[in-house]
Design brief:
This protein is of the alpha/beta class and 350 residues long. Helix content is 46%, strand content 13%. It binds 1,3-dihydroxyacetonephosphate and iron/sulfur cluster (SF4).
Length: 350
């Protein structure tokens, strides 16, 4: 558990973190990327943290990988690379740095450590988990193998290192259908997201896709009726859903794709009004680069992603605490599953 008062006392001894409109004004180039969604008052609060983190990154030879669900001050203020799970996993193999700070959730930090065992990987809050990663263990994978003998196991990257190690190959939401289609078997086991699996089953009808019953607590909350009601209330809105949503929700949407697929779609199409059926920060992070699009309607917050704050990132980087470790034997096996996914994605041009 975090000892926030102790963390704050430590930081205030070393850094001047008083809100500063002057400092905020001097960093307007960064603010311009989020001025539609972050007020000037809030930016004056964030600016001292952003400056301290960016200075410390240079001292530590660190890079920050920020998932698309990070809040704008993290995504635009301190991240060297932003992206979806696949893009961040690939970036972890490419960056030349001593330290990776993972602004995302724990499985992403583990994936970075698996791919870059010699780098120090910092997780600003170890409790930033994921309902999908928590839904299955390596024993669950063995149970599926017993139920469907000989079928390959394709596990979502939203899993622990042990589950990746017990699987044949990983996938993310941007390559799941292609990875399943490329398996040399009629029956393919997908874990742990039942909804992603059902969406893939629809897109890859030549395969018998079977699944584990896990789900994402953010995306499972949407219902097809929510989308129908919204369309009626706000006609002309483009509805865009992440494939972790149930298939009947995806069926009501105009487009479905990974978080980077959603960014690409909205950037290419520039609809007048868009409802992103996914985590709240997605719309905030692209609002400034797409001033012609009005982002409307409700969104759901991921409580795990929202555990990552500027304060925790600064503390982790200052004290070098929150180092992610993966048992070497587990990491070697898990690396095979992740690397197979990366290699196959490159081969397929994804
Ligand atoms: P992608 O960024 O790969 O679409 O994944 C979304 C997600 O839920 C990550 O937790
Ligand atoms: Fe996990 Fe869902 Fe949060 Fe992504 S949005 S980290 S899948 S709980």
């Amino acid at each position: 558990m975090f000892d926030l008062p102790a963390q704050r006392a430590h930081l205030s001894e070393k850094y001047d973190l008083t809100p500063s409109p002057e400092l905020a004004a001097s960093m307007s180039d960064i603010y311009d990327r989020m001025s539609r969604v972050v007020s000037p008052v809030d930016w004056a609060i964030y600016a001292p943290y952003v400056k301290a983190i960016n200075d410390l990154k240079v001292q530590r030879n660190a890079v920050i990988l920020g998932h698309n669900y990070m809040t704008p001050e993290i995504y635009h203020g301190i991240s060297d690379f932003g992206g979806d799970s696949l893009q961040l996993a690939i970036k972890a193999t490419e960056v030349e740095a001593d330290v990776i700070v993972q602004c995302g959730v724990h499985f992403m930090a583990e994936t970075s450590k698996i791919l870059s065992p010699d780098k120090t990987v910092l997780m600003p809050d170890m409790e930033a988990g994921c309902s999908l990663a928590e839904s299955i263990t390596a024993e669950g994978i063995e149970e599926m193998r017993r139920r469907y003998p000989g079928a390959p196991v394709v596990s979502y990257v939203n899993t622990t290192a042990e589950v990746k190690a017990a699987s044949d190959i990983c996938c993310t939401s941007s390559n799941a259908a292609q990875i399943v289609a490329a398996q040399d078997s009629h029956t393919v086991i997908m874990t742990p997201d039942q909804y992603l699996a059902q969406n893939v089953a629809r897109d890859v009808p030549q395969k018998n896709v079977v699944w584990w019953e896990g789900s994402c607590i953010v995306h499972e909350q949407y219902s097809p009726q929510d989308l129908r009601d919204f369309r009626e209330w706000n006609p002309g809105t483009r509805l865009i859903a992440h494939p972790e949503c149930p298939p009947d929700v995806v069926a009501e949407a105009d487009f479905s794709g990974s978080t980077s697929g959603i960014i690409k779609y909205v950037t290419d199409e520039k609809p007048e009004k868009a409802l992103l059926i996914t985590e709240c920060s997605m719309a905030s992070n692209i609002a400034d680069s797409l001033p012609e699009v009005e982002f409307v309607g409700p969104c759901n917050m991921c409580p795990y992603m929202k555990k990552i704050t500027l304060e925790k990132v600064l503390f982790a980087l200052d004290t070098m605490t929150g180092q992610v470790e993966v048992d070497a034997e587990v990491a070697d096996k898990a690396r095979l599953s992740v690397q197979r996914m990366i290699d196959l994605s490159r081969q397929l041009g994804i």
